[in-house]
Request: fold
Amino acid sequence: MKGCTEILVGAQWGDEGKGRVVDALAGKTDVIVRYQGGANAGHTVIVGSEKHVFHLLPSGMLYTGKLCIIGNGVVVDPGQLLFELGELQAQGKDRARLVVSRDAHVVLPYHKVLDGADEAFRGKERAIGTTKRGIGPCYVDKYNRMGITMGDLANPEILREKLSQNVNMKNMLLTRIYGMTPLPFDSMYQEALEWGAKLAPYLGDASLEVHKALEKGKGVLLEGAQGTLLDVDFGTYPYVTSSNPTAAGGCIGAGVGPTRISRVIGVVKAYCTRVGEGPFPTEDFGEWGEYLRVKGGEFGATTGRPRRCGWLDMVALRYAVRINGLGVLALTKLDVLSGLEEIQVALEYSVDGTTCGEFTPSASFLESAEPLYTSLPGWKEDISGCRSFEELPQEAQNYVRFIEEQAGVPVGLIGVGPGREETILRGF
Ligand code: IMP
Reply:
């Protein structure tokens, strides 16, 4: 929408299909901003027969004339960013203008090594199942006020000072605590200087860019990565990522005041998935979980790991509506449910014999929560060709209406296939 800022968030555990929703909406907006997370994300966009997976670039990059921004809240792996940019350039598809916040923090090689070492230290029992992209250790440095920003990369003297301090400290950790070999400073410094030189043309004041666009009456879409239940404050801690994927994180990570937000869009998959460890009440370990994994192609876009699968959890979705102030839902992968006799949906949990309709993100609460399901009739028809709500089989319409009633929020977009055009818009 023109002159407005909208925030798009994942309403579950990530992998809801945010990339395809951003791509479907990007034509109607002018500026697309990634506001948190880093290369742990994997946003898939399918246009015709081409598939693009963006880990760091905003999902609007394929549109001519858009402004795509990597906000201050993102942690940037410069090698990965250059790789993604290079791929688009080689295909002649770098159609948008890219601005990377000078204040975004840089993921350095020691962050990735520490990510792996921390996981190994936690052991099998307590591992989080991170993507090992260095996300947690990079945010730790940011909040410990010793991080290196994208702006620092373009300043050789500041970079040398900050990097040598960091490498010294990390090497003490690696050698004395983890018994690992130290990392070399010189080659890391050289590589960081090269990143700085290559990325200097893209560096800018991201928040100011957004502000100027809004002042000109342009539309801004803030694109969240991961999902509500992976939020470091509101997710299933400690099995979370190290940033705030929830809507409030959009204001911080893009430098936009809350009064400029007009709407929050929640992306929700027609069933649930999770990668990595942590509680997942509606996980199905049997044939239905396997059915959803295979039919939905549920394998991580970043790590290739098989995703854990299960039925839609309305207790968790109502929580996502509350925490994010969702005004509308984008329902993805409805086509994956075609062919099922019945569809299960969890409406409440039973916890130690007590019925509970409120989600509490504590791991111990969720581990003892037994979902109480209701069953809805499925549909047999292939729905990938439907382009209006009325074309959907009655049972599919009923499923969507049921979600709206239970969530208390309308469903404004329905994904009936992975392609850009396989989308039904309902007053969006
Ligand atoms: P990290 O973000 O790599 O530290 O991983 C922390 C947790 O978040 C792990 O369970 C990951 O599997 C999960 N995670 C991180 N990024 C994504 C994502 O984009 N989609 C789904 N899960 C994610």
Q: What stands out?
A: The mean pLDDT is 95.
